Amino acid sequence: MVSHKPSYPGIAAVAMLAVLPLLPVPPFWITLVNNIGLASLVVIGLVLLTGVGGLTSFGQAAFCGFGAYTTAVLTTAYGLSPWMTLPLSLLVGAVVALPLGLMTVRLAGHYLPLGTIAWGLAIYYLFGRIEMLGRYDGISGIPPLSLAGEPMLSGSSIYYVIWSFVIAVAIGAQNLLDSRVGRGIRALRGGVQAAEAFGVNIERAKLTVFVFAAVVAALSGWLYAHMQRAINPTPFGLDMGITYLLMAVVGGSGRVGGAIFGASVVLILKEILQRLLPGLLDTTANAEMIVFGVLLVVILQFARDGLWPLLQKWLPARPPRRLPVDGGTLGKRQMPAAGSTLVRVDRVRKEFGGLVAVNDVSFEIKAGQIVGLIGPNGAGKSTTFNLITGILNLSGGEVSYAGEPLSGLNPRLIAERGIARTFQHAKVLPGMSVLENVALGSHLRGTAGVFRSFFRLDRKEEEALLAEAAYQLDRVGLSAYRDRPAGDLALGQIRILEIARALCLNPTLLLLDEPAAGLRHGEKQELADLLKKLRAEGVSVLLVEHDMGFVMGLVDHLVVLDFGTLIAEGKPGDVRQHPAVIAAYLGSAA
Ligand code: ADP
Ligand code: MG
Questions:
Q1: Residues 190-230: tens digit of each pLDDT
Q2: Ligand 1: nearest atom to the Cα of 353
Q3: Ligand 1 neighbour 357 (Cβ under 6 A)
Q4: Spatial separation of the C-alpha atoms in residues 121 and 46, rounded to whole Å
Q5: By alpha-carbon position, which residue is closest to atom 5 of ligand 1?
Q6: Domain boundaries, the chain
Q7: Which of 221, 291, 405, 452 is deepest in the core (most CB within 10 A)?
Q8: The domain 341-586: what is its CATH number?
Q9: What sign results for the dihedral spanned by CA atoms 318, 320, 324, 330?
């Protein structure tokens, strides 16, 4: 069962929040905590975008501006009630984010943060130039929020509204991370190739997290407008954009709790600095930004994951999930008729500049067969895998699958057809649990999108996807490591993890690139038994492996490559006697 028991520190924090305004605290405390709440909303978005997704944005303050100006204009000029403008403010945030996101997330490396600085600045000046938005004076006379006819005029009344939204968004964001969509987002940082090979639409995952971050920033802006009841462009400029990023960095990557923590630390620090610095530096103009800049650099140098993980050590760990391992409830693919031609590799060619890595190679894989692909290092085996799975484009020839050409399809569409693979250089997300890494493989067997995930309406499906992952882990013998980070595993175990992930796709064809490397003798035996069992179930396997003993006892058909060229194929016993094969392997270990 996937259950989230409420944690005691969580309950304590909520209880503390609930009573704070009732205590005799100075009003500026309440204002400070309100500001922390507003910033937390933006930073939760940034944690997902930057911390989890790896897409750095300096421009989030601009989206607060869209939320704030939308409600300011609609309530003052058009007399709409504040609650009516809430969905409209969020919508404007999303609608602006869509084209900006489409442009921005395509930028690679340093161009991406630079891009966000560019539009962050542009939007700030835009707010300041538009007559309808009151230019740099902004808009005043914005009505307060009201509940049951009572206007919320004081800081302590809107306090509850702000923090209700913060808690709701924090829970929703955590739900999102713990979902099918969330695994795709988490793969954006360092796992793109593996995610695509299992059907994650990377472009869409990037855009989803970008729009999500923009919408929660717009929500923060909407709340801000009704708290201040007057706005101008200043809080929506680059200064604030940088401050939000600092909060996310202080809070640290991956964790939603870190967002609230980071917002608190930075805003309290800002409060203190604004009192101290003018006396020290003889200036009043945003001197805290100097300290913030230094702090940002220091944290990035010495505590990449922020300060939250240091604190998190003291909090109780999430209890491991209990999941059935008796086979999934997910729908299964129809296996092709045994013996029919499943894959036809037809005069396939790949050139890298002048190097011909795969030289007009042709062979077939019949349904229910294990085909071995062997050859010395550099023979073109992995390149052949990449050509079949769409990671590389063909220079010539054609690959067809169940009679249909695969040429031109991207890895995601090829995965949809039932082709799953492992990588010679293992591609797992080391910080994610073994179970979640494997569950990435069942991505295409679920349908939940961002809304269902955010509101936790995906639980039944999510449970089935995780149960499938648990089942496949059990099958490959890695159950004991299920809740450990994948980075804890030995290299041989990571290869086995990749097989479990591939099996989660419910493949008709499994491509294994040196799966037995790094395994001990007994483990190789278990792997061979598993592959035989899969063959009996109708799964076809294309296997690259250097251990000839392992290959010979297992495969139905053997294909030998040397320098990109097919030099022999046939039954393993016959191929072994082939003079060209003996020549190619002469002096090699095999
Ligand atoms: P194998 O898996 O059989 O050891 P590969 O398919 O990895 O061999 O590589 C075949 C040849 O293609 C090698 O000479 C390798 O250096 C070259 N090669 C592989 N990938 C690339 C690439 N992306 N760019 C340039 N050369 C490559
Ligand atoms: Mg290789």
A1: 899 999 999 999 999 999 999 999 999 999 999 999 999 99
A2: 25
A3: yes
A4: 18
A5: 380
A6: 26-238, 341-586
A7: 221
A8: 3.40.50.300
A9: positive
